[in-house]
Write a structure and sequence with these properties.
CATH superfamily of the largest domain: Tetratricopeptide repeat domain
Strand content: 5-15%
Distance between the termini: 108 Å
CATH architecture of the largest domain: Alpha Horseshoe
CATH topology of the largest domain: Serine Threonine Protein Phosphatase 5, Tetratricopeptide repeat
Largest sheet: 6 strands, parallel
Strand order of the largest sheet: 7-6-5-8-9-12
Length: 619
């Protein structure tokens, strides 16, 4: 055999796209010369062209045994194992390539990818930045930098890098998808729809973009449009699992749990271990309080609470906490910071070891930060635990709108707003200190009597007869399931001898005007109080009321922490938060002044309940 003649012929065949003929020549060469690198590598490349990754990588790995300094081969193997999420193999080839050529942009880029897959986002940024310095015009680097910032909870930095990727490559569909997803994750729905519209100029009927579009419509509660989009996509992508998953979500939001369950099971018939369908079933069973099916699902598919499935761990936490299993509940509740929709506190999780506090919270001897919860309501609720903390080594982060209030009412605690990770040896979420102080039902008595008493002096410009504060909606992600139309409060607000005061934040002037035009009484609206930003005056306004009638929102928590006599109206289903299940004799165990009334979705017993509330108010 003339080796060089055959190598030349094989290479010529490749240039002519005669890959089969070239491969036959290489196989003959390797039978006689098994260590010929040119034949090995080119044969591997032909396998790669035909998507036979398994055979290609066998040859590439053989090639590296002969010469382990081949950077292109190392990069090919790095990409293959990174794409297939084979972390152990990727680590070997990525690090070997970087050692050989640390100044090659792609070795740094792949090391950034590896660190991203390890959730080490700050380290990933370091290597992506190095790759960018070496190759400043490669759009994918900007894309991946944006992904890191997104996972760190930095919306602005993520958006800036995604947009830079589009500047370099305006038709880069991955960047369009990432921008739309970013807007969606941070609840910027109008921006999400705008970015989808732009993406659709470059590609039609892209399944990933269509899914983001449907997700956005569902989150905006444009349910009719979402249904139309789902049906339109079924015509293009018949029985496509990703579309079926959106239909499950739509039916879940509409609280048609049986239809949602039916579709989820259809998905599982197609793909037995589909994690999202299993997660949806878990959510359905949690909201219907079907504990038997809930536990059975976890037993049969344990992987759905492992690894990346943090939102399912959160479901377990909520289910256990709701049912007074605090030990298990608090353990799983830590997963809330990693759940897909919760991004605001991710920046504190760059060094997860800081969350491993080795001792009781009151015995910590090193500087420790208690991190605020995502919403104001949860912050107010869990600050009740702070009455049991006496430790000068602990700082408590809290929303700046509450800062001065809490400094006055819990002066033994050091409250802060902005913080730096490096200032603290340990960190813990505000709710997580419940694991120290709330282990069973009897522990509520240790902290539930705490009330805010030191408020600003604010003169309410409203008549001084008995006052009843009213709040009726929530702007949280599940707000639609917690909101009761103001129209339903007509009978209550029509009651003479009571002054009714609006405590609802947001643009509600038109609703109030329409109501006031239809009744003899009036819902007073103190426009001097910014009910979203000025918590000092809002607390004072709530405190000026003799009674509060509210749905599940921040008003309920403010009224509860002030100890005001409160009637909490809850619609059963997905809008009922776990802690409102903690009731004794009709009253909240967290806030003893709050009496809880629960309604079904149709509010069929609303009039009877309102009559009961009015009788109690008139006593």
């Amino acid at each position: 055999m003339n080796l060089f003649k055959n190598l030349r012929q094989a290479k010529k065949n490749i240039e002519l796209n005669l890959f089969q003929e070239a491969q036959q020549i290489y196989q003959k060469i390797l039978e006689k010369y098994p260590n010929n690198l040119e034949a090995i590598n080119n044969s591997a490349t032909i396998y790669l062209i035909h998507n036979d990754m398994k055979e290609a990588n066998k040859l590439y790995e053989k090639s590296l045994i002969i010469n382990n300094q081949q950077i292109e081969i190392l990069l090919n193997l790095s990409n293959y194992y990174l794409n297939n999420l084979d972390h152990a193999s990727a680590t070997k080839f990525v690090t070997d390539a970087y050692k050989i050529q640390p100044t090659h942009w792609q070795t740094s880029f792949n090391l950034g990818r590896l660190k991203y897959q390890e959730n080490a986002y700050l380290e990933a940024l370091k290597y992506y930045q190095k790759a960018l310095n070496l190759n400043p015009n490669f759009s994918l680097i900007y894309n991946n930098i944006g992904l890191c910032y997104e996972m760190l909870g930095s919306y602005e930095d993520a958006l800036k890098n995604y947009q830079h990727a589009l500047t370099l490559s305006p038709s880069e569909i991955k960047a369009h998808i990432n921008i739309a997803s970013l807007h969606l994750r941070f609840h910027k729905y109008t921006d999400c729809l705008t970015s989808i519209e732009l993406a659709m100029k470059y590609v039609k009927n892209n399944l990933e973009i269509e899914c983001i579009y449907i997700d956005c419509l569902i989150l905006m509660r444009n349910l009719t449009e979402a249904e139309e989009a789902i049906q339109r996509n079924y015509l293009i992508h018949p029985e496509q699992i990703l579309i079926m998953l959106r239909e499950i979500e739509l039916n879940y939001i509409q609280e048609d749990y049986s239809k949602a369950e039916e579709i989820a099971k259809k998905v599982l018939n197609k793909e037995k271990n589909n994690a999202e369908a299993l997660s949806n079933l878990l959510l359905i069973y949690a909201n219907t309080n079907n504990l038997e099916k809930f536990d059975e699902l976890i037993k049969n598919f344990p992987f759905i609470i492992e690894g990346d499935y943090q939102k399912n761990k959160l479901l377990i936490a909520l289910n256990k906490l709701k049912n007074f299993d605090f030990k298990t509940g608090w353990e799983f509740y830590k997963s809330r910071f990693f759940a897909s929709g919760v991004v605001s506190n991710r920046k504190y999780f760059n060094n997860i070891s800081k969350f491993n506090i080795p001792e009781s919270i009151n015995n910590v001897t090193k500087k420790t930060l208690i991190i605020k919860e995502q919403g104001l309501g949860d912050q107010i609720l869990f600050t009740k635990f702070l009455t049991l903390i006496e430790n000068k080594n602990i700082d408590v982060q809290i929303d700046k709108r509450l800062l001065e209030l809490y400094k006055r009412n819990l002066p033994q605690i050091c409250f802060v707003d902005e913080v730096r990770n490096e200032d603290y040896e340990y960190m813990i979420g505000l709710a997580d200190i419940g694991s120290y102080f709330l282990q069973d039902k009897n522990d509520f008595k240790n902290f539930n009597d705490f009330k805010m008493t030191k408020l600003v002096d604010y003169q309410i410009p409203i008549p001084t007869k008995k006052r009843c504060g009213i709040s009726w909606k929530s702007h949280a992600q599940t707000g639609d399931a917690k909101t009761i139309s103001l129209e339903n409060f007509k009978k209550i607000i029509s009651t003479p001898d009571l002054t009714f005061i609006n405590l609802q934040y947001g643009d509600v002037d038109a609703e109030i005007e329409e109501l006031n035009n239809s009744i003899n009484n009036k819902l007073e609206n103190d426009r001097q109080v910014d009910k979203f930003n000025d918590m000092e005056k809002l607390f004072a306004l709530v405190n000026s009321c003799d009674y509060i009638i509210t749905t599940s929102n921040v008003t309920a928590h403010i009224a509860g922490i002030l100890g005001k006599k409160t009637f909490l109206l809850i619609v059963s289903g997905r809008g009922k938060l776990w802690y409102w299940n903690h009731i004794e004799n009709g009253y909240s165990l967290w806030y003893p002044s709050i009496k809880i009334y629960e309604f079904n979705k149709t509010l069929s017993n609303f009039d009877k309940v309102t009559e009961s509330i009015l009788r109690e108010i008139k006593l």
